[in-house]
Design a protein that fits this description.
Blueprint lengths: L2 H9 L6 H6 L10 H16 L21 H11 L7 E7 L2 H13 L10 H17 L2 E2 L6 E6 L12 E5 L2 E9 L19 E3 L5 E3 L14 H13 L3 E6 L7 E15 L8 H12 L3 E9 L2 H8 L3 E10 L5 H11 L3 E5 L12 E15 L2 E8 L5 H6 L5 E2 L2 H5 L3 E12 L1 H5 L10
Helix pairs in contact: 1-3, 4-6, 7-8
Length: 441
């Protein structure tokens, strides 16, 4: 059968508009909108039959019940709903009433067309409204992860569109950088008190509540964190609802993070502003952190950067002050260092963290180690190790839970008294990629 014969059968099932007629043949004719395709079929059939082949009035189409004529109206409603948000990319989705889906199915069955013939109402609605939204807002469509998603609730019984017609989803914005932690006893993220669960309250002896003794009523074990020193300016600049901090691993609370710093991403949920000046924001963060932390290389990033940061298993270099409980000679220290250089150690989960991590045995490589004595009881070490290497336990042995260890090789007790992370290596290859950063680092 010809396409005109099929078109006549479609129209014979009741009044249909040009869009609903043309949509049945979207896979057999290209370069036109469905309305233009339907109009062309009517003209061709009218010429061939030498009699009028008129479309249904806008609100008489039994298939879409006039909704195919309201693309402009829906697009304007979407644009109005997004007026308070800054975005560069968008996507439009449609929630189609079951009645319209059933009408489409009946139309194709009645016209003896395959159920999947042409294009669905939802597909056309998404495209046509989406195209108009782009024209109204100047934004680009993005089918992967747009800045905003507008979901349309199509309802043929609704005379006027309302705020409930459009559900708006605002996706997060992301800022990438590297941080240096310049003071000790600052965790990377907020650390709620274990005793009170972050409430700052505990039960009093006589009933009621009183301030938690463990945290002093603050709800946190530490007054500040790298997150608290960096995220507020980003949240303020992007005018969002919440900021989340994602780090590429974390150093111990009592360790400094120096030199090139540690990669991180701050995620801002429901941002009203996305196009921020990252140079100015970097300066604002560093002023806000007041010398306790510092950020560099700030750049706008994409959602993929969060997973790249969280999955990074980079090697790290540490500088450590070590104290021994008995005298050590330079010769013995050099011999122990030589033994550890390049070796693979076995480490059970350290006692200091076994309350919050699974008890596993891990193998990690000591890529390089250097050191010298300050005096018979004190030394300075620099260790370059595989990601996940517990360097404090590499020194102390953790009562035999790490082997070999510096203490075990020397035969004396050893403890790290100060620890600095001086390099997180491998991040250039992982992150200096314009595909994942909106601006070059």
């Amino acid at each position: 059968m010809t396409i005109l014969e099929d078109a006549r059968r479609v129209a014979a099932n009741g009044p249909v508009c040009d869009s609903c007629l043309g949509r049945c043949f979207a896979d057999r004719s290209f370069g036109l909108t469905n309305a233009e395709r339907g109009r062309s079929l009517r003209v061709a059939a009218a010429i061939e039959d030498d009699e009028p082949f008129e479309p249904a009035d806008a609100d008489e189409c039994w298939v879409c019940e006039g909704e195919s004529q309201r693309f402009d109206e829906y697009a304007e409603q979407v644009a109005d709903s997004l007026a308070d948000w800054h975005f560069e990319t968008y996507q439009v989705g449609t929630r189609t009433p079951p009645l319209l889906e059933e009408n489409e199915k009946l139309l194709r069955e009645s016209a003896e067309l395959p159920e999947e013939a042409g294009e669905s109402f939802k597909s056309e609605f998404n495209r046509e409204v989406g195209k108009r939204v782009g024209q109204l807002t100047g934004a680009e469509v993005d089918f992967e992860r747009p800045d905003v998603l507008a979901l349309l609730n199509v309802d043929p019984e609704r005379d006027e569109l309302t705020d409930h017609t459009v559900e708006v989803q605002i996706n997060s914005a992301f800022v990438y950088g590297r941080y240096r932690k310049l003071e000790r006893d600052i965790p990377q993220t907020e650390w709620p008190c274990r005793e009170c669960g972050g409430t700052g309250k505990q039960l009093a002896e006589g009933g009621g509540e009183e301030s938690c003794d463990h945290c002093g009523g603050s709800g946190y074990l530490y007054d500040e964190s790298v997150e608290q020193l960096t995220a507020p300016p980003v949240l303020g600049a992007m005018d969002g609802d919440e900021a989340l901090f994602h780090g590429a691993g974390r150093e111990d609370v009592d360790a400094l993070m120096l030199d090139t710093g540690r990669p991180f991403v701050i995620e801002v949920k429901r941002p009203r502003e996305r196009d921020v000046d990252t140079d100015a924001l970097e300066a604002e963060i560093n002023e806000f952190a007041d010398g306790k932390a510092e950020v560099t290389d700030l750049a706008l990033a994409t959602h993929e950067m969060v997973e790249r940061v969280k999955e990074l298993d980079a090697s790290k270099t540490y500088r450590m002050d070590v104290e021994f409980d008995a005298d050590v000679t330079s010769e013995d220290l050099d011999a122990a260092i030589e033994e550890l250089r390049g070796t693979t150690v076995e480490q059970d989960t350290p006692q200091r963290v076994d309350h919050r991590r699974a008890d596993l045995t891990r193998t990690r490589t000591v890529y390089d180690i250097e050191g010298h004595l300050e005096d018979e009881r004190h030394a300075e070490l620099e260790v370059h190790g595989e990601g996940g290497l517990y360097v404090k336990e590499l020194v102390s042995g953790d009562e035999g839970r790490t082997t070999p260890s510096l203490a075990g090789l020397l035969g004396v007790g050893a403890v790290v008294t100060a620890l600095d992370v001086v390099a997180v290596e491998g991040e250039e290859e992982a992150f200096d990629d314009p595909e994942y950063l909106k601006e070059a680092i």
